[in-house]
Amino acid sequence: MAHDPSPGAAQPAPSSRPHGLVAIDGGDQRWKKLTEQANMAYARGDISLARSGYEAALAEAERLFEAAMERPGRFPAPVIYNVSCQNLAELENRHGDRSKAEAFYRKACDQLHDAARSPATSLAMRVACVQHLKPALAALAQHLQVHGAGEDALEEVIHRTYETALAVFRVARHAEHAGDDCPYCPIVPS
Questions:
Q1: Cα dist. 120→17, 61, 69 in Å?
Q2: Among 18-22, 62-66, 71-75, 156-160, which range has the highest average pLDDT?
Q3: Which residues contact 61 (CB under 8 A, 6 or more apart)?
Q4: What is the CA angle 142-170-106, rounded to 5?
Q5: 23 contacts 79 by C-beta, under 8 angstroms
Q6: In Å, how far are 15, 132, 156, 162 from 159, measured between CA atoms?
């Protein structure tokens, strides 16, 4: 994203960045409306209203994520959750609170990791979480690099994501080969 160094220069709303995560087909209309309202507030320079709007959108994303854990396939919950966390992270980062920004980037990664690794999560949801770990990890890694995190910190988050993806791949391969006939592992197919 290009940064205009002039004081008071308008910055695009966080979710308008060109990484493709925001263009969501389907999904929850309430979450979209809250995010759009926050984007408009941000574009007007009303950071307080934008922050509260993004926080409300994250609360809605959390509700949708929980619903998707119970009934997979209803909403693109992993991407909605990730976008919501990244919107708040970018807002905090742009306004000088790097530690809050990092906390939101980590929150997205942690939620996706935890859901992907949980045996109680349906296989379809686990796969979706792993798919959306890539942009979540990229945002966190970029933030850590820009703000001088050591190689150990970067290596840790990359390794954790690799291990999670590998674990889900193994479960998916097992489910593909065993089908419903495996009495040793309770895989929730979808």
A1: 34, 20, 9
A2: 62-66
A3: 31, 77, 80, 81, 83, 84, 85
A4: 25
A5: no
A6: 27, 16, 5, 5
- Phi then psi dihedrals of residue 118, to 5 deg: -75, 125
The upper half-sphere exposure of residue 127, i.e. CA atoms within 13 Å in the direction of its Cβ, equals 15
pTM, 2 dp: 0.75
Q: What is the pLDDT of residues 146-159, one digit of tens each?
A: 887 777 877 787 77
C-alpha to C-alpha distances, 98 to 66, 109, 152, 172, 180, nearest whole angstrom: 28, 17, 19, 37, 47
Residue 88: which pLDDT band, with cuts at 50, 70 and 90? very high
